[in-house]
Specification:
alpha+beta, Nonspecific Lipid-transfer Protein, Chain A, five-stranded mixed beta sheet, 7 strands, globular, MDMPI_C-term_domain, Maleyloyr_isom
Amino acid sequence: MTDHPSLQPYVDAWTESIEAISELVRPLAEGEWNRRTACPGWSVRDVVSHIIGMECELLGDPRPIHTLPRDLYHVVDEPSRHMEIQVDVRRHHTGPEMTSELEYTIIRRSRQLRNEKREPDAEVRDIMPGGSKVTLEHQLRLRAFDVWVHEQDLRRALGKPANLDSPGAAVARDVLVLGLPKVVAKKAGAPANTAVVFDVSGPMEFMRTVRVGADGRGTVDGSPSLGPAATLSLDWETYVRLAAGRVRADAVAEQVKVEGDAKLAKAILENFTVTP
C-alpha cells in the first residue's frame, strides 16, 4: 500500500484492470493476438504492447531505439508517434512472449507502487512528449483510466464483456465527465445560459448537467436542470465508446435518446471525444 490513502483508490483500480487484462490474454491462441480493436491501427497485441510500454517508461526503463515504418496511417502527430514506438517494437512478439513480459511488468510496477513515498501533489515527469510536469495523483489517475479503457477495448475485440462497474470504471467516469464542459460549451458551441443533461444508465448509472454561463464557459455538476436545452440518454458502455473516440455518433444513434434541441445534441455527439 502507498503511504497516502488518497492515492490508493487509483492504485487499486489500476491493479484490478491490469490483472484482468493479464488473465484475459493469457489463454489466447496465436491468431487471437491479431484481432482488430477499436483503436485505429491496433490489434490485441498492439494494445497490450502499449500498456507494457507505458508502464515500463514509468519504471524508468530506457525507450527503445526504433524507426517506425512510413505506412502507419494512424500515426498522425508527435504524441501518436511517441506511443507507436513501444507498440511497433513488439509487433512480431509471440503470445507467450507478450504474456511473460506483461506479467513481469505488472510485478515490477506493483512493487514500485507499493513502495511509493511521494506526496500526491509531487511533480513527476509526464510520459508523453513535451517534458511537462504533472502531479503524482494526476499521473496515477490517468494510468488507472487508460488501463481500464484498454481493458474494455480488449474485451470487445475478444467478445468477453465484463468489469463495466469495476473500480476502474468509476475512475473512468470521473475522468470522462470532466471533459463534458469543453464538449458542450466549446466544441458544440452551446449558447450562453443554457443547460444540457446527460442521463447515463447501466452498470455505472449517473446524471450530470453541463451549464454554460453568460461568459460562454461550461461547468458540470450532479444537480438536475428544470429546463435543459437538451437531454441525452444513453447507456454507460455507449458513453465510454463515444467519449473515448472508439465509435462514431452515427454508428450508435439508436443507443442514444435525444430530447430537446436536436441540432445542439447532434453537435455534442459529433464532438463527444475527450481522449487524445
